[in-house]
Amino acid sequence: MGKLHTPYLGLHFSLAARLAARLAAWSSALRQQLALPLRIELWDGQRIDFSALPPRVTIRVPSVAAASYLLRPSLASLGSAYVEGRIEVQGAARDMIDIVTALARNTLKAEGRYARVVRNWRHSKRGDADAIHYHYDVSNEFYAAFLDPQLVYSCAYFEQGHEDLATAQQQKIDHILRKIALQPHQRLLDIGCGWGALVIRAAQRFQARCVGVTLSEQQYALARQRVRAAGLEHLVEIRLQDYRDVQGQFDRITSVGMFEHVGVRHLPDYFATLARLLAEDGIVMNHGITSSDPANGQSPYGGGDFIEQYVFPQGELAHIGHVLKSMQQGQLEVFDVENLRRHYARTCALWSDNFEAAAGRLKALAGEKRFRIWQVYLAGSSYAFEQDWISLYQIVARKAGQPASTLPWSRRYMYTAAAPGPA
Question: What SUPFAM superfamilies does UniProt report for this protein, alphabetically (predicted)?
Fold first, then answer.
């Protein structure tokens, strides 16, 4: 029997030697281009340091088979290898993203750096509900471990730049309510209402009659509890409902962090639905992530592939130009656009820091694999916003074809208007 295994052992050692040689050549070439605080530990105990600096990140390659991930180090391949436990990575999440991106940028050929793929998913109601369930119904406790106390899972608004997360999220909600010029007792629809923070605030400060819709069962249950606890059941209704099934007319409509799930080719229909639900003199605000690629492509270096596989199934990002065109096709006139990319880079960085600080609890709640997914996702998102791979826009619009005299003269009302009700 020993003789039968000899050729296979020889083949294994030969493959290991070849991969070790390729890794040595690859690392030597990279060290000539840049210095990284990175150490790679191979299966045989060999260490490869990429600078004289102490390593901030250590990648442990436990087997010969795992070495191939390093030789083509895209965010998708290394991210997947880490999530699936094929490699081990030690270090802070944001350091991990910085260093892996540097490896990809200096290793991949030009055609491998950028993804121009648009998936064009069908986006059925059942498929969208399943995707929402996968991402949002991990558990409310999971999200509470790294979000602010109101569980606002969207870009915060830092008026000064140094606010804590809870303050910045409250500022974001108030900024939105000023942008839509919400008036007392108006009817407000919030599409993708999350855990209810925006509709609760609108009801408390403006006595607005609010409807919030979500496809997440756990968000729905907790949002209803929060409405009851606030004594606002007479003003706020939370529904487990697809936006396409909403009927009626609303003076104001907000959609915050939701339209990324709609699909690029479905955006004109999505905005047409908003226009149908909007009163003649109403205002709608769409707050969402966009691609920085004019062709609506995914994030570079495999980042988009990782997000699609592990984080947001069937999620699609459109370029801001495509979004504005789709809004006009949906019979909406855009009259204000604000780029909050810097704000989302900071928001994700704070979420990432909170996530790292609560690592033990999060692993207990969601398991090692899901912990690693969100660890990479949050830190990677902060990096992507910082690098202009993706962006975040708040877009204010109304029904198209109205007289110019009904538009505001300036944006001053968004910043100086005093909101009714308690601060």
Answer: S-adenosyl-L-methionine-dependent methyltransferases
